[in-house]
Protein: Putative carboxylic ester hydrolase
Organism: Lupinus albus
Amino acid sequence: MKPMHHSSTLFSSTTISNFKPQCVTFFQPTKPETSQLSSHHETVKKMEKMMNLSSLRSSSSSSSSSSSSSSSTEKFRRRWKEYQGMSNWDGLLDPLDENLRAEILRYGQFVDAAYKSFEFNPSSSSNYATCKYPKNTLFERCGLHNTGYKVTKHLRATSGIQLPCWVHKAPTWVSNESSYVGYVAVCDNKEEIKRLGRRDVVIAYRGTATCLEWLENLRATLTNLPCNMGNENNGVKQNEPMVESGFLSLYNSNNSSHKSLQEMVNDEIGRILETYGGESLSLTITGHSLGAALATLTAYDIKTAFIELPVTVISFGGPRVGNPSFRQCLEKQGTKVLRIVNSDDVITKMPGFVFDEMDKTNADVERNTNFHAAGLPSWIQKQVEEAKWVYSEIGEELRLCSRDSPYLRGVNVATCHDLNTYLHLVDGFVSSRCPFKATAKRFLQQ
């Protein structure tokens, strides 16, 4: 596919061909006659008129450009709820709307800042798994300038795995239970608030980094949601909302030194709502990999606690999180989820199994959800269900593919799952019929 080139011209070819420049000669004889002076004055007046017209055209062009920019901002401001998923991104994903593309990339860079601010160096025992930067300089230190947002809270996730006593004698990178996982940021720039059409609050999560987080990822069976996450029925029911055990553990576990991630998020969002309660607000939760799963759990929890707050998830390379009942709960409460998926990324196909639903009506979901899989015996389906391994895909999907990019050489697990790969694919995706812009090269050399 040849790249498309857009040029900006001041004159059309027709205009140029019809344009006949005039040659004007100025002279002043020793004894000018009246007729010559009159001709001279007329010529000067013509030139002044032409210069004024040119100036007016220049002014008009500048005004038009400013008006166009203002119109674009106004259009975005009016449609911000659409870009946040109010209509489930209908008509915006294929082809990918340019404003939505810019928003996805913007939130993806917030996730990148969560990675860059994490202390990965295990040799620094006192600082390992903490945030490297204070809140007031985090974005600048991570290379994000003029975001219009300020970080208000560092967030930590704690593993609920019970470790044997001897593990505490192991290196910090092995035994570290609580780790910096992301942050909360609030838009505080008047111009950005005006552009967005509301004051936006962002929660950004990084992906798996510590040893215990990897172990939590392996706890892939489904477990019931606790009462403090909106699940009033604590007994075991077939249609009760359930989520992956390890993800839930990282979200609601605490220890003697740190609150749970759930407590920190709820406290901070409550404080923000109290501070800006009279304004138009939105909450956008974004994350990559493990962070995508935590973003989904956070969205469900926050929407349960703060019903009126518009909540949107934009996730990159996320694994499956919950069962069909959990998905239905998210949909009923109005939480909007946009999953950015690379079809070559195996992490997005894990954990568990997804069976096609035969009947998706609300009545059937509330009564009894039936599953089938082509060619799969019913007794295997039953075993999978009883083992609590039946998951459901959540939200809307923007499906991309590494092989569509002319700049990605080879397909391997690490590259396909990398956040920069996702941002590169979003930047280049056009539509399912025209999958990639040949000019899109960003994010690959960072």
Q: What stands out?
A: The two ends are 26 Å apart (CA to CA). The chain has one domain: 72-227+240-353+373-428. The chain has 16 helices and eleven strands.
